[in-house]
Amino acid sequence: MNLIILGAPGSGKGTQAQQLAERAGLRHISSGDLLREAIARKTELGQQVETIIEAGELVPDEVVLKLVMEALADSEGLNGWILDGYPRNPDQAEALEDVLSMNRQVVDAVVFLKVDADTIVERLLKRGRVDDTEDTIRTRLKVYEKETLPVLEFYELRYDVHEINGTMAIDEVADAIRELVDA
Ligand code: ADP
């Protein structure tokens, strides 16, 4: 089973994707984690993207696509994957469709975690990652509305998108996702 999980920063995508991946034997592919790993390892790519991420802007498409493609190729033998944080703009969504059709893979489900802006700001300030400062959060939310919300429309035209209320308790959200995945 291959899943895409969509939602604003702080909507709980990472938490849910990780839980579900463990439970269902899927590979959790988080573009943000892949980028942060590259930064931590001080690779050339990591050094290229560090200031971009701290500013809350999007990393160039080709950079993220490369990391995501490697991770997709590395999912062989598992029951599938769950993509979290990618795609983040319509061009990335198009690129993903191309890669998947080349690899003869399909998207089985698209989940959208819906959370209001106030809750998002509150959650991110509490989390306190280096890109969770008030200024950066504001930028990330703007980028989300402008670049990433159109991705939701992209998938709504092609797939059945399952909207889940992301303000519920973590376990309740997990149950809701599990129900639709099991269905
Ligand atoms: P969150 O979902 O809380 O914003 P992520 O870990 O998904 O956190 O992303 C952190 C940052 O990594 C983003 O603000 C962006 O700079 C970069 N990033 C992650 N995924 C992508 C992507 N698909 N395209 C471009 N940049 C990305």
3D structure, described in words:
- With 183 residues, this protein is an alpha/beta fold.
- The longest helix has 25 residues, at 134-158.
- The protein has helices at residues 13-24, 31-40, 44-55, 61-73, 90-102, 117-127, 134-158, 170-182; strands at 2-7, 27-30, 81-84, 109-114, 161-165.
- The mean pLDDT is 96.
- It has a single domain, classed as P-loop containing nucleotide triphosphate hydrolases (Rossmann fold), CATH 3.40.50.
- The radius of gyration is 16 Å and the shape is globular.
- The relative contact order is 0.21.
- It has a 5-stranded parallel sheet, sandwiched between helices.
- Helix 1 (13-24) packs across helix 8 (170-182) and helix 6 packs across helix 7 (134-158).
- Helices cover 60% and strands 14% of the residues.
- The structure holds adenosine-5'-diphosphate.
- Adenosine-5'-diphosphate binds at residues 9-10, 13, 31-32, 35, 52-53, 56-59, 64, 85-86, 88, 92, 131, 140.
Query: What is the fold named in CATH at topology level?
Result: Rossmann fold
Quickly give the CATH architecture.
Answer: 3-Layer(aba) Sandwich
Distance between the termini: 12 Å
Note the total helix count.
Answer: 8
Q: How helical, in percent, are the residues?
A: 55-70%
Q: Nearest-angstrom radius of gyration?
A: 16 Å
* Average pLDDT, all residues: 96
Chain oligomer state: single chain
Strand order of the largest sheet: 2-3-1-4-5
Count of spatially separate domains: 1
Major sheet size, sense and barrel closure: 5 strands, parallel
Can you tell me the residue ranges where pLDDT is under 50 for at least 5 consecutive residues?
A: none
Structural class: alpha/beta
CATH class: Alpha Beta
**Inertia-based shape:** globular
**Distinct ligands, ions and cofactors found in the model:** adenosine-5'-diphosphate
Question: How much of the residues is beta strand, in percent?
Answer: 5-15%
